[in-house]
Amino acid sequence: MQNFECLSIRVKHNELQIIDQTKLPHEEHWVTCSHPDIMIDAIKKLKVRGAPLIGVAAALSLAQFVESGASQVDFKEKAAELKKSRPTAVNLMWAVDRLLSVSFDRVIQTAYFILEEDIALCEGMATHGVSLIQDGDSILTHCNTGGLATAGIGTALSVIIKAHQSGKKIHVYVDETRPLLQGGRLTTWELGKRNIPYTLICDSMAAQLMRDGKIQKVFLGSDRIALNGDFANKIGTYSVAVNAYHHKIPFYVVAPRSTIDFSCENGNQIPIEERDPAEVQGVTVGVTHPIRWSPQNASVYNPAFDVTPAQLVTGGWVLDCGFFNFEQIKEGSLRELNQLNS
Amino acid sequence: MQNFECLSIRVKHNELQIIDQTKLPHEEHWVTCSHPDIMIDAIKKLKVRGAPLIGVAAALSLAQFVESGASQVDFKEKAAELKKSRPTAVNLMWAVDRLLSVSFDRVIQTAYFILEEDIALCEGMATHGVSLIQDGDSILTHCNTGGLATAGIGTALSVIIKAHQSGKKIHVYVDETRPLLQGGRLTTWELGKRNIPYTLICDSMAAQLMRDGKIQKVFLGSDRIALNGDFANKIGTYSVAVNAYHHKIPFYVVAPRSTIDFSCENGNQIPIEERDPAEVQGVTVGVTHPIRWSPQNASVYNPAFDVTPAQLVTGGWVLDCGFFNFEQIKEGSLRELNQLNS
Fold this sequence. Notes:
Two copies of one chain form a homodimer. Chain A is α/β, with parallel strands linked by helices. Chain A has helices at about 35-45, 50-65, 70-85, 90-100, 105-130, 155-165, 180-195, 205-210, 235-245, 280, 325-330, 335-340; strands at about 5, 10, 15-20, 30, 140, 170-175, 200, 215-220, 225, 230-235, 250-255, 280-285, 290, 305-310, 315-320, 320-325. In chain A, the strands form four sheets. The first copy, chain A, has a seven-stranded mixed sheet with strand order 7-6-5-8-11-15-16, sandwiched between helices. A four-stranded antiparallel sheet of chain A has the order 1-2-3-4, covered by helices on one side. In chain A, strand 9 (about 225) and strand 10 (about 230-235) form a beta hairpin. The radius of gyration of chain A is 19 Å and the shape is globular. At the A-B interface, helix 7, strand 7, helix 8, helix 9 and strand 12 of A face helix 7, strand 7, helix 8, helix 9 and strand 12 of B.
């Protein structure tokens, strides 16, 4: 395996490693994933997360498995298991299916191609999105969409980082993103590292900031985009979208083309994963041991994602290959991207 | 001091005690408040919370101070300090001002009158609100508005409890209410004690439940109501209101008359208290020691309340003295209540 190092994933001395995101921001701990089973566990436990990064990590894990001498039968079996480890992440299916579609001797090369491509896709999103941010803008974001969610500099965060790098004075409001606190733990960490001014808030505070005129734009990512522009993203996204719509604040979704599910006509067809009640009963990440603050056995609803209808994406969709507004999406722009691919 | 016991406050063997709400639901620990300074500390640290309960607790604390032989000068000094301990809670001002307005020898009697009155006010709200809930309704609530927020059975929760007691099959969705988790820790505890079926959610999940048709009504409390019907309540209330409005779900505010600030024309005049950044950087209540999951010194915005405009109160205002809809409020119903008082 060829050496490389990103913020979230690396190959070093022939070992594939991921940074354990459940231990951030307190500790930068790298986990060696010497077998796909370890990667599957890491995906399920959110040690590695972020839709694009999961795809890259799964591909590299399979590449390493092949390099270590796995048979084609074993490779296919682990590929199938990896696809099931995070059912909503379409990039994961996309990356694994790509490895399955090439001849067995090209698996490793293709996995590295997926890695390089992800870095390029982030650059593409940043390029197509940067002009949407003006000097002086305050931007709300949700969850983590940066270098911890991709192998490159990020999806929604790539646009924000590019705007900052181009000299625009911006401020970022970061939703903490309960229950897993990707905003409070990870986005704050990334923005701090890059000296981008930010303010951390609880998810429920964004509405009041919008009413007070303190937020000019919303930028966030997506885990799956349907052909009509409806999209799934981290739970809480839909509430942000409704609030942005009410306050007439432009709302932008930033994602690579691989997020589009060409088999999915609209948001109703997107399955929503429900997660462990303990995540809502207390806090299970960013702490040395899980904490419960609710009564024992408190009944809980814990969907990992929600679906936002295209009508609420009042800003538009920033993809690596270009920017699309609601009218263009309605006219079938996403469907056309599939025709270009095939 | 005459003995009595409520869910949240009691006098036992001449000692005024409050249940320490920062230790719930794990431990039912009673704190003896032998001096107003201890009560001021308890209010500031949210050991005692809930706008009506704070008023009762402050009044009883001053009564005890007088009974223990405090001079009128000392009484007035502590009364002034108590009023400053929670600046947004108008009930606190109202209760303390009442004690200041009576002759010194009637302070104790008046404090007990405020206690009895609070219990009666809760009954009044329950009576005027119960018919708004239908058999089969699922109701969203925010923060804690029950017997831990009042000396009686609650404000918004009194309506829900009454509906349940009257045999209606209802279900309650409980916003956890970051950052201080009054929903996750306290409302769940109260509903569990009363065997009322509930589901705990993160604040950001309510919108999706509304979209899925799983919430029929919203009932929540208020810390201060302006004459035009705008009201302040726990941070996150405004986001719930915007979402309920978007989904055409009736939104009800339940509060005693003492919540009305007759000197306040509209919501813009309500001051918003900002609290300790540590509350948003991690969790400071319901845990044995404060936990931080964000980076150290993460910049934070932490308003305790937000203001919701009257236009979003699509259901209406349930007061102890009756139910008012938006049209009635617009025509000056709240102002008229002041004329009745004076």
